[in-house]
Amino acid sequence: MPAIMTDLPLRLGVIGLGAMGAEMLAIAAAHPDVTVVLAADPGGSALERARIAHPDLTVTADPTEVVSHTGIDAVYIAAPPVTHAGYAIAAMKSGKAVFCEKPLAIDLAEGEEMVALADATGLVNALNYTLSDRSAAVEVLRAVRAGEAGDVLGVDIELLFPEWPREFQKDARWVAGREQGGFLREVGSHYVFLTDRVLGPLTPVHTEVSYGEEGESSATGLFSANGIPVRLLGNVAAGPETYSWTLHGSQRSYRITEWGDLSVGDADGWKPVTLSGPRGGEDTRLAEFVGAVRGRPSTLADFAAGLRVQRVIESFHSAE
Fold first, then answer.
1. Per residue, what are the HEC states of the chain?
2. Which of 88, 100, 160, 213 is least surrounded, with the fewest CB atoms within 10 Å of its CB?
3. What is the number of structural domains in the chain?
4. Mean pLDDT, to the nearest integer, of 266-281?
């Protein structure tokens, strides 16, 4: 997108007011460089919660009003994944920058169309991957590029959920469904993105997935990233909720747990790393998006990165 060179706040529209949408709406409403012009959700209860939390905010049950609104510069999309492509494409066709929750899309053809349109228009486009600016992930990327890991020998991604959907997502029934939900799309995509950023694109070698009554129950995948093996193991089973990403190096290894706790490993064991600066969160990523629309560099994932992740995640489902 040609940078919007102005001191005026970015005029933002919000689509989707569930858990993530409501959180980002609150952050955007408090951001000094953002004016939320309009927020939309087809659900009456979500709209009512937004009205109570933001009594001066204009809301609508029709998300198309956001993408067609002439007084909006950019759109944030937190609606169910099956709607991402339709809203993002309409927004870009009307000249708006787009900040979208992951996954990019469910259908690969739609993801490809989103990337093609973003390239053709030059509009700023970004996906809200947690690990794009999380300080632990930024430090691992720096260390690997500086050669501190030595040769990278492999990456392991381990996910365990005692229940799925997780408690905070239970109102969003699509999260459990095979059509657009599951822990691979909702959680695995963040760690696939990080691996793609550190090692390069992943090529599927073998994937398999099993389903229970509430969507995916287990998933095993082997991938190659420039010849480096990447293994993903995910389960819905008894045990502590686990989020673990481990990069194995010949000199040092790096492990990120709990979405941002970093440890460095060598022959003496794993040692926690204290990181300085902001941890990275929804607030910092929104600020980066605003900066990107203003023409500043950004660490956010673009739609092209999101499409690479989508291809990896959907390889599990195509292997059924």
1. CCCCCCCCCEEEEEECCCHHHHHHHHHHHHCCCEEEEEEECCCHHHHHHHHHHCCCCCEECCCHHHHHCCCCCEEEECCCHHHHHHHHHHHHHCCCEEEECCCCCCCHHHHHHHHHHHHHHCCCEEECCHHHCCHHHHHHHHHHHCCCCCCEEEEEEEEEECCCCCHHHCCCHHHCCCCCCCHHHHHHHHHHHHHHHHHCCCEEEEEEEEEECCEEEEEEEEEEECCEEEEEEEEECCCCCEEEEEEEECCCEEEEECCCEEEEEECCEEEECCCCCCCCCHHHHHHHHHHHHCCCCCCCECHHHHHHHHHHHHHHHHCC
2. 213
3. 2
4. 95
Residues spanned by the domain of 259: 134-279
pLDDT tens-digit map of 91-137: 999 999 999 999 999 999 999 999 999 999 999 999 999 999 999 99
Examine the pLDDT at 210 and tell me if it is beyond 50. yes
Q: Are residues 36 and 157 in the same domain?
A: no
